[in-house]
Design a protein that fits this description.
single chain, 144 residues, alpha/beta, 4-stranded parallel β-sheet, two-stranded antiparallel sheet, 4 helices, 6 strands
């Protein structure tokens, strides 16, 4: 039985808002729509692609915290292994870069996100990648 019966949140929402990086966006990926069972499944999906061991999963507050808790079931706790830094949605990658720089500067880090709205940095993998043309192609029509 679904845990959110009686309250429905859409995963994709058409609304204009300002993203964490300060840019205006016209649609949102509403990760509050994801249930705990789905987060657990997403962690399993990532683990099918994540071939390297990691000592601990660290979630970017607030979006990556639930995912990191499920990914920590696969962590080695071995200090010789890299950290796994995770977030729910990547738009510019600024949150991932900032967290890595401030908290894991001298550490070996692997990055994962569920959705990437743009192509992430080489050290970050995404489970689902939005086509780049929709985000930053200057030839695209503006939808308001």
């Amino acid at each position: 039985m679904k845990e959110n019966v009686g309250r429905h949140t859409n995963l994709f929402v058409e609304e204009t808002f300002v993203g964490h990086s300060g840019g205006t966006l016209h649609w949102k990926i509403e990760m509050d729509a994801i249930t705990n069972a789905e987060w657990k499944c997403i962690a399993r999906m990532i683990m099918e692609y994540q071939k390297d061991f990691f000592q601990a999963a660290i979630g970017i507050p607030r979006g990556g915290l639930t995912l990191s808790s499920y990914l920590n079931e696969y962590a080695t706790q071995n200090s010789n292994d890299p950290y796994l830094l995770v977030d729910d949605v990547l738009t510019t990658g600024g949150s991932m870069e900032q967290y890595k720089e401030e908290h894991l500067k001298e550490k070996d880090v692997i990055g994962w996100v569920v959705f990437a709205r743009t192509k992430p940095a080489d050290w970050i993998k995404s489970l689902f990648q939005m086509p780049r043309v929709w985000v930053d192609d200057p030839r695209k029509p503006e939808y308001h």
